[in-house]
Amino acid sequence: MLLNPLTLGALTLPNRILLAPLTRTRADAGHLPNALMAEYYAQRASGGLLITECTMVSEGTSAFIAEPGVYSEAQIQAWKLTTDAVHAKGGRIFMQIWHAGRAAHPDINAGARTVSSSATAIEGEIHTPAGEVPHAVPHALTAEEIPTIVAAFAQAASNAIAAGFDGVEVHGANGYLIDQFLRDGCNQRTDGYGGSVENRARFLFEVLTAVTAAIGSERVGVRLSPLNSFNSMKDSDPVGLVGFLADKLNAFNLAYLHLMRADFFGVQKGDVETIAREKYKGVLIGNMGYTADEAEAAITAGKLDAVAFGTSFLANPDLPARIKTQATLNTPDSATFYTPGAKGYTDYAAL
Q: Which of 48, 118, 201, 207, by CA, is between 20 and 30 Å from 334?
């Protein structure tokens, strides 16, 4: 089943082995994608769908210093290197569009104000050009400021299509801005964007409404991580949250729902996949720590439609071929996940 085709929105995927979005911090100054990044994605074009690393929807929202953006004409043109290279190899690629929210920092963004749903900082420190500094206490967005950010997501989606992407994935996971509204451990608002699960989901739904209007719902996916405690996140009822969202997302007729099934740190636990499958009628993609055998079993049992692989695809550019032939997998080198240059990026051996 893992190697069977799948209809996903406007696309027909040749297999159900997807490249998960992975931050690799190889962009040039000005958050410009480059030829090295194009080579990296093209190497992995045999995946059913490639999903890029998180990509900034607007200036002044960087969390990683060297991640790419899609808010300038120069960035749009530079991304064409990647989309052209992937399509030349017969691949399909979505851009993950993203606003870091409180995970950004003024020291990375020329003093730009950090924003979130509420004025509560992430615990611990962030890496900046000046070294490690505490996370900034964010400005709590006013209801009047939110539409500008919604519009930035819609423009980013249009820019991604202009750059040659087949679609976009709206990043609603891992403690970034949309997730900062969704989960009640961060969202302390008392207005129409806080309190009830309906209110906390309002920002996500406004973004999806704008993005689908801009490029068509069949070219839009969304990623959620109801359990992940990364970036000081938690929710009092993660299973209830994903059940509510999975049900309401049906109205958007998206290409897919991409669900992270676990917590990086093992703090929050729960079965979010079962209720997502029960409530969501579209394509459901699973993610986090799947082996090929486990993915095959989940798809065969109807629990998922496809699986996004992260570090195993990072280290094995020909992962679908290796799974098909049951070949040994290369071991990922975590020391080079975020370092500059080709080492640990484009130099993993194919079969």
A: 48
**Is there a domain that residue 349 lies in?**
no
Within-domain flag for 344 = no
Assigned token pair, 127: 């890496």
CATH number at residue 309: 3.20.20.70
How far apart CA 53 and CA 66 sit, in angstroms, is 11
Rounded to two decimals, what is the model's pTM?
Answer: 0.98
Domain that holds residue 16: 6-336
Q: Is residue 143 part of a domain?
A: yes
Does residue 329 lie in a domain region? yes
Chain center to CA of 326 = 28
Q: What is the pLDDT along the chain (351 residues), one digit of tens a residue?
A: 999 999 999 999 999 999 999 999 999 999 999 999 999 999 999 999 999 999 999 999 999 999 999 999 999 999 999 999 999 999 999 999 999 999 999 999 999 999 999 999 999 999 999 999 999 999 999 999 999 999 999 999 999 999 999 999 999 999 999 999 999 999 999 999 999 999 999 999 999 999 999 999 999 999 999 999 999 999 999 999 999 999 999 999 999 999 999 999 999 999 999 999 999 999 999 999 999 999 999 999 999 999 999 999 999 999 999 999 999 999 999 999 999 999 999 999 999
Domains of the chain: total:
1
Asked if 176 is an active-site residue, the reply is yes
| CA dist., res. 85 & res. 227, Å (int) | 35
- Cα–Cα nearest to 76, from 31, 112, 39: 31
Instruction: Out of 176, 193, 345, 348, pick the active-site residue.
Output: 176
